Amino acid sequence: NAAISACEKAGQTLCALQLISHMKARQLEVGSITYNAAISACEKAGQWTLAVETLSAMVLDGVELTTITFNAALSACDKIGEWVQVVALLNAMSRDRVDKDSVTLTAAIGACSSGREWQRAVSYFSNLCQETSECVGIQLGTIVNACKDVSAWKVALRMLDAEVSRWLAQEKHLSSFRTELFGQDLERTVIPESSGCRKGLEVLLSRPGVFAVLKPPGVESESAIERVREHFQSLGYASGVTRVSRLDAPTSGVLLMAIGDGSSASANFALAQFAGRMVTKTYHCLCAGGLLGTRGTSGIICAPLEESRCSDGGSYTVCVSALGNEAVTTFQVMSCYQQISIGALPSEDLALVAVRPITGRTHQIRVHFATLGRPLVSDQLYGRQSLSRHTTWCRRLFLHCSRVSLRDIDGAACSARAPLPDDLCSALGTLSSVDEDQVQLSSRSRRTTSTTHERRAAPKK
Description:
Layout lengths: L1 H9 L2 H13 L6 H13 L3 H13 L6 H13 L3 H13 L6 H13 L3 H14 L5 H13 L3 H17 L4 H9 L7 E2 L9 E7 L2 E6 L5 H14 L6 E3 L8 E8 L5 H11 L4 E8 L10 E5 L2 E5 L6 E5 L7 E12 L8 E10 L6 H8 L15 H4 L8 E9 L5 E5 L4 H8 L2 E2 L2 H22 L4
Parallel strand pairs: 5-12
Antiparallel strand pairs: 1-2, 2-3, 3-5, 4-5, 6-11, 6-12, 7-10, 8-9, 10-11, 10-14, 12-13
């Protein structure tokens, strides 16, 4: 069992299943714990067919099927949107009188939404609301996004409006809390530093249900949010704040949070907007490794991303993988620069890019541009090859969240803006601007080189 659990954590499906075969050959008891770990390994590896087959093997072996067992198989199917199999598994749970919990229904909602079966997803969401009093904003947002994809946008908006009204009705204390807090002019004030957050936090947005601060580089998002929570408590507001998005520690810019605890109407509504892709986030980054076109050039990067833990067990890295989650990033070139040659190092072209991530995966912008061969300047994780060169004139990651737009709990549109900070502006000041003719010449050169490589590779296919 310990060995199979190790395989589960590493997503080594075949090893886990082979160990079960060895156990049977030696007439060792194979119980639900063993099978659950094997099915979880299938889920992490995106092998939904093996997960279902392992579930069937449990039935043949007379092993009791539990909610945990079904949930592992459902999660495997949800990962790739296999909604038909999800419905079959739910029917089997009903037939065998196995209890369904919030994990069960969340997987069903996710799979049906991915498969554009939004009517089924809505039905499962109704069951989920009866099952739990916990935050369900993410699940609702998943359905909203599915409705948007199939042109059922009006249905989604009506559903979202109805749920917000229901959440507010359950939260009798919210109106008085909002009146007290937002009767003050908090925007552009600064929350003082503390032992847990060594830098002050400028308030960028203070609207009903939403709050945003300017997160400095080098400060963890969790530390900044905890500092805001402490500040609210010192002012006599006990409801606190809830994290609805985050920025990497080296990234600066707009950090958004919801006012209230995790089950509040504000938190649910904000999370629903993020999951429904109704929130617009704009970043600015400086890409190294060559230009991405002339000013105004736009593009889209679609590459699934998968997280993996490092050997230290704490930190993690992200890579492009077919087993990963959908990740989409749009961008537009704002300006083109060149760093003059330094000693033996040749000159280097760089591009200042405005980025709008459609999805919100960990390290998404950093990994997507690194995959293009255009890593962000001074990126210690994904731009190590040129790190020593860049840190001489840009001492930290050149990535800044400059704007976040969404709706507050009253339904009004609002935005938090943060201009490019002084340290990044100073870094740009060390570079030379590149004119349009130089960019076009460089682009033609790259296209010729790229075409040549493709022709050479063709006979090998």
